[in-house]
Amino acid sequence: MTIDKRAGAVEADWEVAMRVVFVHGACVRDGSWWWHRAAELLQEQGVPSVAPALPSCGEAGLPSGVGGPGLP
């Protein structure tokens, strides 16, 4: 990384990888639907996102606990 204090500019010679994880509120069983518009906008900019199924909200038909669904 190069920092030019006179110009206040920073040049990075590395790339940052990012993924957005959307988490919905309680009592919602269709989390990915709630976030799909934002996810589409992010994808257009090359930023992947995911809305994981939350076992505590009864999604995916699996019991809650360490064996429930998580991030892909």
User: What's the gyration radius in Å?
Assistant: 18 Å
- Terminal Cα span: 32 Å
List the strand order in the largest sheet.
Answer: 1-2
Broad structural category: alpha+beta
* % residues in beta strands: 5-15%
Gross geometry: elongated
Stretches where pLDDT is under 50 for at least 5 consecutive residues are none
Protein name: Alpha/beta hydrolase
InterPro entries: AB_hydrolase_fold
List the defining traits of the structure above.
72 residues; alpha+beta; two-stranded antiparallel ribbon; AB_hydrolase_fold
Describe the structure.
It comes from Streptomyces angustmyceticus. InterPro entries: AB_hydrolase_fold (IPR029058). This is Alpha/beta hydrolase. The chain is an alpha+beta fold and 72 residues long. The protein has a domain of 34 residues. Helices cover 19% and strands 14% of the residues. It is built from one helix and four strands, in the order E-E-E-H-E. It has a two-stranded antiparallel sheet with strand order 1-2. Strands 3-4 form a two-stranded parallel sheet.
Secondary structure topology:
Layout (H helix, E strand, L loop, with lengths): L1 E3 L4 E3 L8 E2 L9 H14 L4 E2 L22
Parallel strand pairs: 3-4
Antiparallel strand pairs: 1-2
